[in-house]
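R.M. (postdoc): so does anyone remember the format we settled on? I'll just put the structure tokens first.
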């Protein structure tokens, strides 16, 4: 099985990846299961985003683990997130660019809901000092029952430090340099590394076709050892996304 813990539908940097594009692309690459959220959330209405998630389910309900990409505004509109229960979400995706404060009450509230629902929380890390991995250390420790993915694990030293202090902190390999993945494995973190691609985002950063990029990444990570690969691309995914 090949499981991808980090994929998106939606608008991103001027490109649109429809549910059809994404599902077809992933199936063609041999991906069996994926955790998916919508990058359209940042600019589009809930009605639009909801349709994307519904369409994704229509096309691939068995393969898709739906993650609710949550903004502070969405939390304001539904303090207990019940509004979003129209879809079978299994976790939250949080991006600091949407205005979350790492030490603020709204993010703490989102974590409290995740704890109650036994949902994992996927946090974007890197790109700004505001949401570097280390900023999430206190939250990981305050909510030890919540499984947290420090997506991208950036910067790596901070991600590693949080992982060493909090057993519930994981990372995914999306855009992660291979040597960083190696470092994590060398530090004994092989049970807390998830294969993630950020599909289709690489299409807006790299010239090479998305499918070739994807296959190269899989081959490179697989080159780190079959045991480590099976953990990150299968067993760890199951452990993360099974309640
Ligand atoms: Zn992403």
């Amino acid at each position: 099985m090949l499981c991808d813990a980090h994929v998106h539908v939606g608008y991103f940097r001027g490109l649109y990846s429809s549910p059809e594009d994404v599902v077809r692309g992933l199936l063609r690459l041999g991906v069996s299961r994926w955790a998916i959220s919508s990058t359209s959330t940042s600019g589009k209405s809930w009605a639009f985003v909801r349709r994307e998630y519904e369409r994704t389910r229509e096309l691939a309900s068995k393969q898709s683990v739906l993650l609710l990409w949550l903004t502070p505004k969405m939390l304001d509109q539904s303090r207990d997130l019940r509004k979003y229960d129209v879809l079978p979400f299994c976790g939250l995706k949080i991006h600091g660019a949407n205005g979350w404060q790492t030490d603020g009450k709204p993010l703490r509230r989102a974590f409290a809901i995740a704890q109650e629902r036994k949902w994992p929380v996927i946090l974007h890390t890197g790109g700004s000092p505001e949401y570097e991995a280390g900023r999430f250390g206190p939250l990981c420790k305050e909510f030890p029952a919540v499984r947290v993915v420090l997506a991208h694990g950036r910067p790596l030293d901070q991600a590693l430090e949080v992982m060493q202090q909090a057993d519930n902190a994981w990372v995914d390999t999306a855009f992660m340099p291979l040597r960083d993945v190696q470092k994590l494995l060398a530090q004994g973190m092989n049970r807390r590394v998830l294969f993630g691609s950020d599909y289709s985002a690489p299409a807006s950063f790299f010239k090479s076709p998305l499918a070739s990029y994807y296959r190269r990444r899989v081959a490179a990570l697989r080159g780190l050892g079959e045991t480590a690969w099976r953990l990150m691309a299968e067993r760890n995914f199951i452990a993360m996304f099974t309640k």
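R.M.: ...and that's the designed sequence above, right after the tokens. Also worth knowing: The chain has a mean pLDDT of 96. The beta strands are 3-12, 15-17, 33-38, 64-70, 91-94, 121-124, 148-151, 169-172, 193-194.
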